[in-house]
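Intended use. Records like the one below are meant for learning the mapping from a protein sequence to its folded structure. Do not use them to infer anything beyond what is encoded.
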Amino acid sequence: MGFEFKSLRERMIKGAKHGITVSYKNEEHILVQAINAYNETSRSYNLLYERLTEWYGIYFPEIKVSNPKTLAELTIHMLSGEPNREEVLKIVEDPSKAESIISKASATIGRKQEGNEADAIKAFAKMSLEMNGTMEAIGAYIKSASTRILPNTTYLTDERIAAELLAKAGTMERLATMPAGTIQLLGAEKALFKHIKFGSKPPKYGIIFKIPQISNAQSERKGRIARVYATKISIALKADYFTKKFIAESLKANIESSIKRINEKEIKPKHKSEQQWKRPARNEFGLGNRGKRNNFDFKNNRRRGGADRGFGGKRSHR
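Structure written out for the chain above:
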């Protein structure tokens, strides 16, 4: 009995290990980890940029740079000694802006660096540059992997949006079998559950909102365009997973014609009740008015507009 149990246990462990090896054989799991790492690194990178802006602003408050990489390079150069016009021009790639930075640096009202203050902020700026290089490397892999795994979907959206859809679904099989409505709302789970629980307005799009044709559209047309994209993305995903055929060009043409038709269609003004849509108030039992059939008057123990009935279906005589 003991020998049989030990043999069974060994076979089960071996089968579990084999299952793990097979499940991670597909590259889609690597792409999911890569896009998650990219998004997390991007958030950290933005925080570093904000901190560096405030920190270096103590020494040079007049400088205004919107590019995090440019700011980090300028910080390292400006704190390493007297600013060099050629180096500043090489960093900002704009002669007028380089000249402005040089002139403002000579008459800045900021703090004069003392001791090893410059070493600390330069180390921080170097870390920001390293993080930028890391993001570029991860981004390059995401672009190549998305094109290999999701060629049709990447063509319709872009490499990062396609990878984010895959990350939300978990696997290619699950994503490819999702209906268009689910794909349209991937990434808007919080708004959807808020709508279900509290009756707020339902979401119209999730991750696909990042597509420029949707985000740049008029607010009244965004939902329709998102629906068009979700439908075609659903078809593209099935082609990516099942048939492996490239059909994105025809899908893209269909999307463009549909968007053109939506933009040409006149927008009807919303009814006042639709503009101020609000979920019906709940009664003391936590139930809302669900229509005439279930419109039960709990206070008088009867249905509104019908015969008096008590609990259990019996007529209540008065």
